[in-house]
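Shift notes (night). Ran Clavaminate synthase-like protein while the centrifuge was going.
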Amino acid sequence: MAPAIDPPQTVEWQGKRVPVWPMQTVDYGLLLSQDPAEVDKVLKACLEDGYFYLDLHSIDGHRMLGDQQETLKLMHRFFESPIEAKNEFGLISSHLGYEPVGSRTGAFGAGTKDGYEMLKVSRDEIQRGSPKVPAVIKNSGDLQVLENAIGSCNTITKVILSALSTGMNLTGASRYENSHRNDRPSTTTLSMMHYLPSDVTGNNKIGHQKHTDISSLTLLFSEQWGLQIRPPGTCGAREMGFVAPKPGCAFVHVGDSLRFASGMKMQSCIHRVVPFDPTEHRYSIAYFLRAEDDTMFVDSEGRYVTAGQWHDEKFKAFTDPWQWQAMAPGSMILGGMKEAGEDDPTGEPVAFAPSTAVAKEVVKEVSVHA
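Came back to this:
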């Protein structure tokens, strides 16, 4: 294995230097064996940051890396197909089907649309006898590729959930994985995204707007630059910065549902996608592990909502006109996460809830009782 190369601290983008934010790296092989130090590391990352790299170089992760490459080949074949073939079923539901470019608000808000097309295949659908996926996939034998990818992603995200349950000292039915069973209806989905060059989409269809994910955990693969995050806390919290693709690693984001399930102790990751190189086709694969539809949470507004209800409400917010989104900034699309400096009349950054100090106390408390 070649030695790891540290990413730069800043990169040139749109005529200025933009930060490249660091991420903790969690070893999947160690997490699978519930190594205590690795369990502490992943818990701390979720409490303090809401994101981390997942290293899949071990023998346990090789299967997923292979499935990722096969899925990328499938994506190239699918997205090069005529629009009629891609859109055979249209958008069957909010978590199943094809979305053309420009279905949502773009990376820069007012007046822009997104710059990607997307194929979504739900875990529930792929488990059925004859899943509704376009014939261009079924007839080419690519259905098995999707089944393998969803199976691998599902296993990996369940291992992470189990480690977090252990780290939080949860037992029995209260363990997170017990609200994410495969045989119960959920909106768990594999999403395949193709970002088009700006000379194809034009200047008004750009990237993917700032948001938190409608998920418990998101397992994200992309070999190309473009993902930006806003770190929690006060350090640099006002500025979106890139995270570097890391060979053999996936990005993992904490989504809204896990933040709610943890009693707001865990962070949700605020992120967006922008065209780093506007001339390239960019491909990313995201597995959104979501809680069973009838799982009950207390959301950021103090409401009792089910996972299914939260998904449907937030999906509608994503597809609302940008003018409507601007009337309620951050509340739904950011999962209730406040951006630093938002409520401070002095203009100084303010910490998210929970602050890093609170997160450290949670880690300390969990370690003492483990």
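The longest strand covers residues 282-289. The two ends are 35 Å apart (CA to CA).
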